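Example 5.3 — Transcriptional regulator GntR family
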Amino acid sequence: MVDRAYWNFLDPQLIEWMDGISDVEQFCGQFLGLRRAIEPEACALAATFASAEQRIELSATFQEMVEVSEAEPFDQMKWLDVDTRFHSLIFNATGNDFFLPFGNILTTMFVNFLQFSSDGGSTCINEHRRIYEAIMAGDSMKAREASANHLREENHRLPVAS
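Solution (predicted structure tokens):
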């Protein structure tokens, strides 16, 4: 068996296989660590480089997020879909082709992560709103900060690192 140090954890087939992992908390903690390392920068780049079409699509997706978050009863599967699309759109709007695979990976890993880390249908809609507004305003510093704040452990039902 090949040592884990040589596994390609970003391979979609491996990610699908990891669907059945036993230590979900560790998986989610590591995924959150990856997101914290790259997603704030993706938001900053999207604020700077998103095209008019991408901003329109992001706006429509965010509006859908608001509608889903306010719907009674709350539909967790609809939220997972729209939240995944929102974050994937951000990676696609970076203007940097090396960020694109991360947006694609999110669609595979996000469902497992959000099902574990979302507290009883919590949507963090206000954190998403701050990210969205900063990107739409073209404010890369605020977009980076809003994303970093969204990705803190205490927002994701994960044990807070000491």
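Remark. The domain at 24-155 is CATH 1.20.120.530 (Four Helix Bundle (Hemerythrin (Met), subunit A)).
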